[in-house]
Automatic annotation (TrEMBL):
<dbReference type="GO" id="GO:0042562">
    <property type="term" value="F:hormone binding"/>
</dbReference>
<dbReference type="GO" id="GO:0005737">
    <property type="term" value="C:cytoplasm"/>
</dbReference>
<dbReference type="InterPro" id="IPR003462">
    <property type="entry name" value="ODC_Mu_crystall"/>
</dbReference>
<dbReference type="InterPro" id="IPR036291">
    <property type="entry name" value="NAD(P)-bd_dom_sf"/>
</dbReference>
<dbReference type="InterPro" id="IPR023401">
    <property type="entry name" value="ODC_N"/>
</dbReference>
<dbReference type="Pfam" id="PF02423">
    <property type="entry name" value="OCD_Mu_crystall"/>
</dbReference>
<protein>
    <submittedName>
        <fullName>Ornithine cyclodeaminase</fullName>
    </submittedName>
</protein>
Length: 312
């Protein structure tokens, strides 16, 4: 069994490759070529949590991700992916889950953006200043001609630091917004990557035609957008069963009587496969609701493990 650390994941899993992996993994999920259970979550003290995500992906093997979520730490998601060989049943690899999660979450959003955002989208707004904010700044411009990124965060210093990093490392103009409304005004694409317990983004702030990657909340409870925006948008999940059970924004809107389960459209994998529509017209507001799926982790784990075996 091989062990792959954070640095090796970073070397072997580039964002363009990962975007393609996410498309294929989500098609497999949507077309029945994978198996997975809903994630199990144990609440810990201080708002921290421990999660277990088991599953199997055709062509990749089977396994589980064990991950801690400590929002106040520099690396909020830490853990391991244990990958088993589908032929022998033997454990094949233990891989750093924090770095895989960081990359694959943003690349799944980028893949969804490629299918749902307007073709000429150039302005990206990112709400949040942590690891996922940076990863989305890297990934989304790979699928759309982004020339401006606006950053909003509760800490102006962190927002400014992220803007400088974007300009220095990505060569894209970055601006710090003083409010959520200012950040998203006129933005073609919005990525919410916060730990907000209550909605920070309202429907009134969003222009027609906007695509939103709804990323920050991965469980029932904390929500980043208001009920009106949920109801207004074409609401497309990564994993429909997961969102119906654990998608906080949908659950709040449903409990308020604003939407029913029918509002959650077929999964993004069916859009990738051409089996269901994504955007119907240029004025649609589209939402990709990301909870994160073990098939995404397994696809990345298999890619990284294969790259290690090939280098021997």
């Amino acid at each position: 069994m091989i062990v792959v650390d954070r640095d090796e994941v970073r070397r072997r899993l580039d964002h363009r490759t990962c975007i393609a992996l996410m498309r294929e993994a989500m098609i497999a999920l949507a077309t029945g070529r994978s198996k997975q259970l809903l994630r199990g979550i144990i609440d810990l003290d201080g708002g921290n949590a421990f999660g277990v995500m088991p599953g199997a992906l055709e062509g990749a093997g089977f396994g589980a991700k064990l991950v801690s979520v400590f929002p106040r730490e520099e690396h909020s998601h830490q853990g391991v992916i244990v990958l088993f060989d589908s032929v022998s049943g033997a454990p094949a690899a233990t891989i750093d889950a924090g770095q895989v999660t960081a990359i694959r979450t943003a690349c799944a959003s980028a893949a969804a953006t490629g299918a749902l955002a307007l073709p000429d989208a150039r302005t990206l707004a990112i709400l949040g200043t942590g690891e996922q904010a940076w990863q989305h700044a890297v990934a989304v411009p790979l699928v759309r001609p982004i020339d401006t990124i606006r950053i909003w965060g509760r800490s102006p210093d962190k927002a400014q630091g992220l803007a400088r990093r974007i300009e220095a490392q990505l060569g894209i103009a970055a601006q710090v917004a003083t409010s959520v409304a200012d950040a998203v005004a006129g933005a073609s694409i919005v990525c919410t990557t916060t730990a907000a317990p209550e909605p920070i983004l309202s429907s009134a702030d969003i222009a027609d035609g906007t695509h939103i990657n709804l990323v920050g909340s991965s469980r029932a409870g904390p929500a980043e957008i208001d009920n009106a925006l949920v109801a207004r948008a074409r609401f497309i999940p990564d994993h429909r069963d997961g969102v119906l059970a654990q998608g906080a924004e949908f659950l709040r809107a449903r409990d308020a009587g604003v939407v029913t389960e029918a509002h959650v459209l077929p999964e993004i994998g069916t859009v990738f496969a051409g089996l269901s529509p994504g955007r119907l017209g240029p004025g649609d507001v589209t939402i990709y609701k990301s909870l994160g799926s073990i098939v995404q982790d397994l696809a990345c784990a298999r890619h990284v493990a294969d790259a290690r075996f090939a280098s021997r």
